[in-house]
Every structure is written in structure tokens, then in C-alpha cells.
Write a structure and sequence with these properties.
Largest sheet: 3 strands, antiparallel
Distance between the termini: 47 Å
Number of strands: 3
Order of helices and strands: HEEEHHH
Structural class: mainly alpha
Shape: elongated
Length: 146
């Protein structure tokens, strides 16, 4: 069976829609056994269904952690929080050995200008060109700012 590009794009759209589908914080889950003896679970009650109480993952404390794992988990959460509060976490940092080089400064300025234009808004015809400028200037910064 050959997988076409259109099929992959369709599956990507379905996956994104499922990921964006809001899930309730605590939902009712029902369990029942059909006439053939198969066990089923669902969000709607069927004949003879029993209600299962499943706590929300967001409110559950991660139990069963080994020594040091809880501290590592808190470190990861703190880093993630710092990363989301930083103004621009995608900008490559100039390296100290050549940070004052003219080429580095030029490409850093071009990168910042292109990012600023992307944030400020653009017409649909300009978006691809701006994203190409950002990628090109970032690659140039990685080459020249060493």
C-alpha cells in the first residue's frame, strides 16, 4: 500500500483536531460487558453499565516516585516555566569568543528585525518570505557568531 501525501496531510489534520478537542477535567466513564462477553468502556451509559471513578491527571499527585525523581520533576517544571516566560527563547545567543564581529552583529540585527515583523503582523503573501529571512539569518548567526 502506497501512502500518498494527501493521506498524510489528512491524518495530520485529524490528529491536530483530536489534540485540540477539549477533554473535561473529570469525566464519567462507564464499563459494561456485552452479550458476547466483551468488555467495553465509554462516556455514555449502556444497559447494565457501571460507573467508574477515574481521577483527573491534572489533580493527581505523581505517586510512586523513587528518591530524587520528585526533585528532578520539580526542576523540569521550573525550567519549563522559565522557558515560557522568557521573551524570545528561539534566538541563538552570540558566543563570547566572536560576539563583537561585524558579520555577527549584522545577522543578529536582521534576525531581530524579521522576528519583529512576524510578531507585528503581515499580509499572507509576506509570511513565507519573512519566515525564510528568519531561518536564513538564524543560520548565518550560527555560522558567524561563534
Amino acid at each position: 500500500m502506497r501512502v500518498t501525501r494527501q493521506f498524510c496531510q489528512g491524518m495530520a489534520v485529524v490528529a491536530m483536531l483530536l489534540a485540540l478537542y477539549p477533554s473535561p477535567a473529570s469525566a464519567q466513564v462507564y464499563r459494561w460487558v456485552d452479550a458476547n462477553g466483551n468488555v467495553h468502556y465509554g462516556d455514555r451509559p449502556a444497559d447494565g453499565a457501571k460507573t467508574l471513578d477515574i481521577p483527573s491527571a491534572a489533580t493527581t499527585d505523581p505517586g510512586g516516585l523513587r528518591d530524587g525523581e520528585r526533585q528532578r520533576l520539580e526542576t523540569i517544571r521550573a525550567r519549563r516555566e522559565r522557558r515560557t516566560t522568557r521573551d524570545d527563547d528561539t534566538e541563538p545567543r552570540p558566543r563570547a569568543s566572536n560576539a563583537g564581529a561585524p558579520d555577527c552583529e549584522v545577522h543578529t540585527r536582521q534576525y531581530r528585525q524579521a522576528r519583529q515583523q512576524l510578531r507585528a503582523g503581515y499580509r499572507p503573501s509576506e509570511g513565507d518570505a519573512l519566515r525564510r529571512r528568519v531561518r536564513a539569518s538564524m543560520a548565518a548567526m550560527n555560522r558567524h557568531c561563534r
